[in-house]
TrEMBL record, chain A:
Pfam families: BPD_transp_1, OppC_N. It comes from the Bacteria. Keywords: Cell membrane, Membrane, Transmembrane, Transmembrane helix, Transport. The keyword Nuclease does not apply. One of its GO terms (cellular component) is plasma membrane. It is a multi-pass membrane protein. This is Peptide/nickel transport system permease protein. The keyword Membrane applies. It is found in: Cell membrane. Residues 122-324 form the ABC transmembrane type-1 domain.
UniProtKB/TrEMBL annotation, chain B:
This is Peptide/nickel transport system substrate-binding protein. InterPro entries: Peptide/Ni-bd (IPR030678), SBP_5 (IPR039424), SBP_5_dom (IPR000914). One of its GO terms (biological process) is peptide transport. Residues 1-23 form the signal peptide. The keyword Signal applies. Belongs to the bacterial solute-binding protein 5 family. It is found in: Periplasm. It comes from Acidiphilium rubrum. Residues 76-458 form the Solute-binding protein family domain. Keywords: Signal, Transport. One of its GO terms (molecular function) is peptide transmembrane transporter activity. Gene3D superfamilies: Dipeptide-binding Protein, Domain 3, Periplasmic binding protein-like II.
Amino acid sequence: MSEVSATERDIAPPAPGYWAMAGRKLLRDRAAMISLAVLVIIALLCAAAPWYAAHIAHTNPFRSNLSGTVMRHGKPVEVLGAANNPLHLGIEPIGPSWRLGPYMLGADQQGRDVAARLLYGGGNSLIISFAAAAVCLVLAAITGILAGFFGGWVDRVISWLLDALWAFPVFLLAISLSVVLIAHGIDLGLFRLDASSLALPITIIGVIYVPYVARPVRGLVMGLRQSDYVLAAIGIGAPAWRILWFDILPNVISALVVFAPLIIALDLLTEAALSFLSIGVQPPAASWGTIIHDGESLIYTRPMVAIAPGLAIVITVLALNILGDGLRDALDPRAKLRN
Amino acid sequence: MKVVAAALLIVACLIAGKAEAKAADYGGTLRLITTAGSGSFDPQINYTERYWEIFQAMYDGLVTFAKTSGPGSLVIVPDLATEVPKPTDDGKTYVFHLRRGIKFSNGEPVTVQAVAHSIRRLFKVNNPNAGTWYDVIVGGRTCNAHPRHCTLPGVVIDAASNTVTIHLRHPDSEFLDQLAVPFGAILPADTPDHDMGTQPIPGTGSYMVKSYDPSGGIVMVRNPHFHQWSAQAQPKGYPNEIDYKFGLSAESQVTAVENNQYDWMFEDVPADRLNEIATKYTTQVHINPLNWFYYAPMNVNIAPFNNKDARLAVEYAVNRESMVKLFGGNALAKPDCQILPPEMPGYQPYCPYTEHPGPTWSAPNWTLARAYMKKSGMIGQHVTVITEVQSPFRQIGIYLQDVLNRLGFVADVKPLSSNIEFNYIQNTNNKVQISVTDWAQDYPAASDFLNVLFSCNSFRKGSDNSINISGFCEPAIDAEMAHAETLSLLHPNQANAIWSHVDHQITRRALVVSLFSVAKLDFTAATLKNFMFSGEYMFLPQLAVVK
């Protein structure tokens, strides 16, 4: 009874692979799945921004509308109207209608539709945070793998560079780079980035977080470098690129996937901070950070201008963190990267 | 008659002030708040309202504007000099008799040597107006050309009689005004001939700096060597200490003043808080007329605004009424097209850049704007608007960007910290195309707007102190302004007619987009009494009672 026949062996399903097992585990994680769904919904809503602006808000959210009017309760109302007080001081943007239509979340100081800008801004925030995370992970993988695998002077030089980058408080570094580059962009001959291009914050944010990922990757690779199969490959004279590509990289990817949502969340917050300080996304383009900045000067009269993007950031970052936890549990059951 | 009336006015103000002042009013700490510092703390360098408001309590010139409120605040009174001298030699010579017994806050006596050194120093430290104001002194032009070797033979001292004689190249009706502003502060004779930056220089005023942190704030205490020699010129202040903190946004400043955490805020109250303070804190709101305008200088030396048609396109397209909304509405601001503000001598209302050209602005003229834009051939040109990061500047910058984009430019906007923006936009090395800034009078004279902002002498390539931000230079207009200045001493009406003509000529050249002229709103805490607003220095902190 203990022996398995040849026929039975042939028809037995193949053991699920590492990624398939991780996928199944992730699918069973309800919190992670809800978070993923929330992220997908946010991304879809942001992608629908042009449609919303054209067909629901009937506005161009990048144009000032200081002298415009809008219909409210069948009457034309000024988008920026004079306040009613004894000294005749002050102008107030129109408040939220709370109905699907023009100025659902009210107007900002330029008379622009906040809801439409929220969707456009979300698109830019997500693009920047995802792209910056991609830049960060690729650079971190390259530097971490090279330092961990080759060791010696390669490791010393890379570690020194990472330490130098790490020595700066991350926000201070991001702000400094942004302030310096925001006026004229980057111009290194072949590599040029316009000051108003989204690629500028993507590059800055992507680079500053490299040490945070590269260091764990380096440690992981140093461990893998001593594993039997890598030593065997070296022993039989396999070229370094082959070992890196086929033996090291597949083992590093799972760590990078676990890092991805966490880095995206960090990038989102950093982008919001830079834009809030006017050194991220440049007007008239919007991001959630710039809308919060616009709302800062309306916080007492039209708080929704700042609250709406703030809520969007909170929900997105929370969803990314929960998804990150789920991915970590699925891909790294021994939780090497838990700390 | 005017002088007599003004003197009576000052006396009346002072009597009224004295009647209110009691011994119990002296003391306490006045708490002021602003967003950030304003660069150098050198009174002969700094050209900002933020610091002039406190410099006037720390420094004295030979003459000054009376430290009082109302129209009397624009009258010049003797300060370190015993009297305001009458010019002799056809208006070209002034003899100042120096008061005796006055000391700087470091204990050094005020001497004629210190006066001569201070006037020479204006050229050596590259004072922003050395080229426009003070070069009228004999030797001033040489000093401007070679500041390091400035000897200024036009300033003659006589230690025995304690007099300083200043010889001018030609009569200048504004010379005393120019000596009365903080640039004319008399500093110790050993003050170094370079920008002192963050190191406060001793002065003779009723207050001195106890500590100055460019990012934290200023603490001012009573000057131990001060004794009141003239209540008009330098009154003994009421508070024992004045704490000027940096670091709160304008929004937070309003809240802090509402809660009596600070007594006064420097920044303009943000537009969204105006209704709140006008409703709940009506008695703490002070609105005073002021010669002050907001404008957008266009650099006439680089593309695209080296093309007059491009500038005209912007002039016609800008909706000034919308700009007024960004500042808080019609109670605080009025649309504007020209340079001179309404209360200024020589002002004749004029607005060519509107739907119906005439004395006032009515509406943007997009038909003409688009026609000029097409004619300019600048469609698709990249333009960057430089502005301050704070409201209303940032909002104005964003609105201008929108207008430029609608015209066919490819515009972006760069908001910079208020700490650096004003100097940044002046320096030609930064290649600023268009910016947003404001200008308030240094003293009530047309030249303070026209000569200072548009003369060839105010334009200095590569300098942070090039207040002619447009970079405009037309010798014929300079000559006309010089003629007006010469006439204004003896023939003020003729001079005003010329100033009016110059104002309209400069407006027609479309060098800046005049946006709106404004009144000054101050918001004070309920704990602050005796708010005094000078037409020259604005809020007079030393006269506020906080006990």
